[in-house]
């Protein structure tokens, strides 16, 4: 229910059986800004329909699946290898509901009602909504989109790979396949260059054959897995890796009519042993969370495979997939933050302690204000990076380049993944505490969200590895140049007096950040690595602050709404300002005065905002 003060969260029982799109005004704003008018007009009702589905059927199914996840039945009753993963019925339903709403297809092929595909941001926005309910299932969705992107770029010349691309981007569940990416081996996940899996050309069969072990394989039974392997005489390290598409079923023993699909799987059940590819799904990992995606160990025993792109270009090609996977991870992190925030607002508006609902107490108000500001920051940054990725891919599809967008996105994406994953874990952990003892038990979704969130900093690259990637982007792409231009442009646009103090703080930090980048460029590797993580977070803070200030200025001009002024001020004060005595002596009561606006999305006039921002501690 909306009142003058904003959404009344006390009217909800918990954060399910609601429409996540309709309640998440932060995502709505960022997409309205990042999409063209045409795209937004087309997408709005569809995102709303998807938000409704995720908030109802998918949310209920996700809790069910968490208690009864996929199970591996490696052998049939005669002891022959069948590599069968048994999914609960609820999972088939979630898959159908998600893919048939175009989560992957719409960003690759023109959907009904449009002449062109939607930008990749749209795929990420849907992943964000899906992760409100099932961040585990978002992993296969992300890898299906990632595999499609790789085949779109590097598989165009090959008829078989085109068939796989068509199946990955299919709108019809019966004809759909999913993707996966197998990189990690026992001896190396971060150190992909240590991969030992071998690929040999089998002339008589007319296939490449893979031999070796993959140690962490999510969506283990995907119909179109991309794997890295080393061909004969290939050099050591990442330079010697090639990329292969490994079908789940033996490509010679399926019905010969394109790849083995979801429809065949659901109708026919386990493959006959003769129909399996030459591989063995050894076991599923017994994981903390993300139960809905089966992650296991695979032994390639001469698996038939197709080379993707050129030999020894595998790592470079995989990097293209990784850009999208890392942003998918960031979108999933934002979705988890959004759900935890929603659950926390609702719980706090209903739970009574000491005679009042707990959302009436100053400390709880400050907690919820800060959680909402974290959500704003994570979402704003992620969809800015998504906009750049989309711009670059749109240019690539048109046979053009978008150099600055590429260079900036190369810097922003590893940072997006690292920071939002950390924010998701911290937010899910504190959200649990807001639910008191209840938050710790399985009856409440906070328990699962924390377990699911905990993998986000690890897979797709740990925070240290991503921080080293930031150094690479700076060195190889001179990414500080487009970064400087992007921040300057935004700061120059700020003119409103209510933003002046925050803008001055950001201006000073921007100057220091550029100084830090110049210093690191002249330092030795050891010194640069020691600072890499701090640098990544520094870029996030300054860039996000500039984005929030810009959004705030625009909101004042276009809607005369000062809510984002409050958000921007709180973010800058929390992350960048040098506060005397940590703000304790400032006398400010910002969280109380800004609560309705920041937490409940209540509009706030320009006049009111002036009084509140005088002290944003
Ligand atoms: C649930 C789950 C699902 C997964 N699914 C997949 C999948 O589908 N496909 C796939 O390929 N992989 C998958 N992985 C593997 C995952 O990507 C790796 O575990 C991850 O990249 C880390 O690699 P590692 O385990 O080898 O750790 P290591 O590389 O051994 O890292 C251990 C620690 O050392 C640090 N470290 C390593 N090198 C450096 C350095 N140079 N400087 C500073 N610190 C360093 C890391 O940051 C980390 O903290 C999955 C993992 C999990 C948990």
UniProtKB/TrEMBL annotation:
Entries under SUPFAM superfamilies matching the protein: Acyl-CoA dehydrogenase C-terminal domain-like, Acyl-CoA dehydrogenase NM domain-like
Domain Adaptive response protein AidB N-terminal, chain residue ranges per copy: 16-174
Tagged with keyword Membrane: no
Disordered, as annotated region: 248-276
Organism name: Natrialba chahannaoensis JCM 10990
GO molecular function: acyl-CoA dehydrogenase activity
Acyl-CoA dehydrogenase 11-like C-terminal domain mapped to chain residues: 485-577
InterPro entries to which the protein is assigned, alphabetical: ACDH-11_C, Acyl-CoA_dehydrogenase-like, Acyl-CoA_DH_CS, Acyl-CoA_Oxase/DH_mid-dom, AcylCo_DH-like_C, AcylCo_DH/oxidase_C, AcylCoA_DH/oxidase_NM_dom_sf, AidB_N
Keywords annotated in UniProt: FAD, Flavoprotein, Oxidoreductase
Domain Acyl-CoA dehydrogenase/oxidase C-terminal: residue ranges: 313-474
Family designation: Belongs to the acyl-CoA dehydrogenase family.
Cofactor: FAD
Keyword Oxidoreductase on entry: yes
Protein name from the UniProt record: Acyl-CoA dehydrogenase domain-containing protein
Family annotation (PROSITE patterns): ACYL_COA_DH_2
Residue ranges of every copy of the Acyl-CoA oxidase/dehydrogenase middle domain listed in the record: 180-251
UniProt xrefs under Pfam families: ACDH-11_C, Acyl-CoA_dh_1, Acyl-CoA_dh_M, AidB_N
